[in-house]
Structure formats: C-alpha cells, structure tokens
Amino acid sequence: MGYPVSYMEFVGTIFGIAGVWLAAKSNILTWPIGLVNIILFFLIFYQVQLYSDMFLQIYFFLISLYGWFFWDKELLTKEPIKILSNTWKIYLSVLCAILTFTLGYAISQLHVWLPTTFPKQAAYPYWDTFVAIGSIIANTLLARRILENWIIWIVVDLICIYLYFTKDIVFVALEFIIFLGLAIYGAYHWREKYLKQAVTVS
Predict the structure, then answer these.
(1) Residue 164, in any domain of the structure
(2) Which of 108, 145, 166, 189 is an S-S bond match for 125, by CB 3.0 to 4.6 Å?
C-alpha cells in the first residue's frame, strides 16, 4: 500500500497478532510467540521515542515468562468472571491518574537526565505513560478474570491507534485496530458469561 514497513515492524506485528490469536485459543505457544513481538516492539518504541511503551515491554516480557512456565489452563477455565466494586473502580482510577502524571513527567525529562541514552525528547510522554499504566492494570485484571480489563483495553487500544499512526508506525497501528476488535468482542463475551455468575469483587 506504499507504506515502507521495516522488517522489525512487520515481523513484530505478525507475531503480536499470532500471539493474541493463540491466547484466545488457550494455546501455551502464545507466550513464546509473544516474546518475539515484545522484543521487537521494545526496539521500535525506542526508535520512535515512545519510552513509556518501551519500558512497558519489560513488564510484558517478565509476565510472559511467568505465563509460559506457570499458565494453568484448567484454572483459567474454572475461575469465574468477576467485576470490580465501585470502591476498587475509584481506587484504580485515582492510582492510574497519579502514576500517569508522575511517571509521565519523569519520562518527559529522560532526554535531560540521561541525554546519552535518550538523545531525543519523549513523544507524547503523558499519553504514552497512560498507555503503559493502563496496560499494566488491564493485564493484571485480565489475569484475575475481572471483566473491566476489556474496558481498559478498549481505551488503551484507541489511544495506541492514534499514537502509532501519528508516529508513522502504521503496521503497528493496524495491529491495534485488530486488538480493539478483539477487546470489544472480549467485553461482550465476558459480560454474557458474567451475567450467568454474578460474582462481585469487594
């Protein structure tokens, strides 16, 4: 389509989509496949100065190693879907806001504090940091099978699509359009299952 995609972006995106598809199939290969995506995206985000996204890949790398060795598919199928109480919704919202502004400021100053490692100023440091914090919260809720993880993923995916198109990593942005569709499907599918369980996290 006339877009000069790099091998790193192309391969990383393909492995990312494959990893999500395997996760939907409860296939343990999702973890090693996802590691390839994570390593390549770490390098891509460094190149386009999305440093919060870059650091987020470190978290994803570690949680993927954990999932690869300890994922219990039987537990995932038996554990009921839950929802957050209003208290937890407020707590996580405040926590996300505080971390976004404090870490976002730190990310915005990396080129000042560490000019050798980060010679260019961070792009969209606060939005990028929100993506990182939101992704960590969403991934944690996903691991605990809490419905609201999908709502957070929808918001995160929408922001990512904008950021990545703006930074001209179009292939990655297209990947997140697919992720957005999967998140919308996940929210609908999990809600239908939850309505049959009505288990609330307090």
Answers:
(1) yes
(2) 108
